[in-house]
C-alpha cells in the first residue's frame, strides 16, 4: 500500500503552536475578567471570540514567544580586551593633528585646566583601533574616545603593538586602556597644546 508523502514539509520538524487546552483556558479567563467588569452576559461571547482569535493566531503567537525566548538566552556581546594598568602612562602617542578634536572633547565633558602654569591631567578610558584603511600604511592604530580620534601610534609603535596583538590572538581587534590628557604649558609665545599618554607598556 503506497503512502502519500507528507505535504507539511520535514516530518521531524514541528511548527510552533499553542495547544487547544491553552487556548480554551485563556479564553475562559478573558471571558470571566470581562464578565466581572461588564456583566455576566458578556462572558460567553467574549470567551468564544477570544477562542477564535487565539486559534487562528496561534502560530504567530507561538513564533513570537520562541523568538523572545531565543533573544533572552542569547549570549551578551563580547567586550573589548582591556590592557593591564601599570599606572605609569609611559606610552606617548601623536596628538598634534587632533587638537581640535581634543578641544571638542573637553567642551563636551566640561574639562577645564584651571591655570596656565599648573600642569594637570585627566584620566580617560580609550579605544585602540587597528585601521587598515590607509593605503600608505596598513598598520595604523588610532586612539579614540567617545567617537573622537585624539591620537595615533607612530609607525614603530603601531608595528610593535600589532605584533603584540598577534601574539595574544587579538589581531585586528579593538582593545581598551587607560589614558591621560595632558596640557603643554604655553612657552615662547607658542599656543598651548594637548598630549595623550596611554597606560600600557611603551613600544618605541
The amount of helix comes to 25-40%
| CATH class annotation of the largest domain | Alpha Beta
CATH architecture field of the largest domain: 2-Layer Sandwich
Integer count of domains: 2
Shape: elongated
Secondary-structure content class: alpha+beta
Portion of residues in beta strands equals 15-25%
Low-confidence stretches: 1-16, 70-77
- How confident overall, as mean pLDDT? 77
Largest sheet: 7 strands, mixed
Keywords: Membrane, Transmembrane, Transmembrane helix
Protein name: HIRAN domain-containing protein
Transmembrane segments: 20-53
Organism: Nitrosomonas oligotropha
Map the helices and strands.
Blueprint: H1 20-38, H2 43-56, H3 58-72, E1 81-82, E2 91-93, H4 99-108, E3 121-131, E4 140-145, E5 148-152, H5 155-167, E6 175-184, E7 193-198
Helix pairs in contact: 1-2
List keywords for this structure.
204 residues, Alpha-Beta Plaits, 21% strand
If you had to describe this structure to a student in words, what would you say it looks like?
The protein has 204 residues and is α+β, with helices and mostly antiparallel strands. It folds into 2 domains: 20-72, no CATH class; 81-198, Alpha-Beta Plaits (2-Layer Sandwich), CATH 3.30.70. The protein has helices spanning 20-38, 43-56, 58-72, 99-108, 155-167, and strands at residues 81-82, 91-93, 121-131, 140-145, 148-152, 175-184, 193-198. Strands 1, 2, 3, 4, 5, 6 and 7 form a 7-stranded mixed sheet that branches. Strand 4 (140-145) and strand 5 form a beta hairpin. The radius of gyration is 32 Å and the shape is elongated. Mean pLDDT is 77; it is low at 1-16 and 70-77. It comes from Nitrosomonas oligotropha.
